[in-house]
Amino acid sequence: MKHHSSILLVALLLLSALAMSVDANPWNPKKHITTVVVENDIEGRELTVHCKSRDDDLHLRRLQPHRSFDFTFRPTFFETTLFYCSFDWGEGVRWFDIYIQDRDYHICKWCRWLVRRDAVCLTSDTNQACYYYKRR
Fold it and tell me: Which helix (H) or strand (E) holds 67?
């Protein structure tokens, strides 16, 4: 029984050391705060936006042209953070994954998305890219 206790103690010490090294790491995603900005870039149309994640519902927003809203969060350590949004400007609902940690984490900490009729465009700290809407 003493042998099992020793193994358990060593395992706990190793896990504690690993946890401390993760918290001290400046690249730890838990330390990285991300802001996503969603802006209506459709002239003459009010945009209805509804964004969610698995854990958070950011509720319905109505944006006039060139108006925006933003939200801030900490990406997960396991790189699984996902926020998705629906967009409606009177021509049918469109869907897009507005933040995919695996895609966006290394691109932007402040991610500004321009919602257009044909695509959603990311203007970030370092680049600009447009993506088509998801088909549902």
Answer: none
What whole-number distance in Å separates Cα of residue 115 and Cα of residue 87? 8
CA gap 45, 43 in Å, rounded: 6
**Strand partners of residue 123:** 112, 128
Residue 63 sits at φ, ψ, to 5 deg, of -120, 125
Place of tokens 């370092």: 126
Pairing, β 110-115 against β 34-40: parallel
The residue behind tokens 């900005």 is 37
CA 91 to chain centre: 26
| Residue 45 identity (one-letter amino acid) | R
CB atoms inside a 10 Å sphere around CB 66: 11
Report the SS3 class of residue 35.
strand
Residue (of 79, 65, 2) closest to 34 by Cα position: 79
Per-residue pLDDT of the chain (136 residues; tens, 9 = 90+): 565 566 555 454 444 444 444 444 445 545 689 999 999 999 999 999 999 999 999 999 999 999 999 999 999 887 899 999 999 999 999 999 999 999 998 888 899 999 999 999 998 666 789 999 976 5
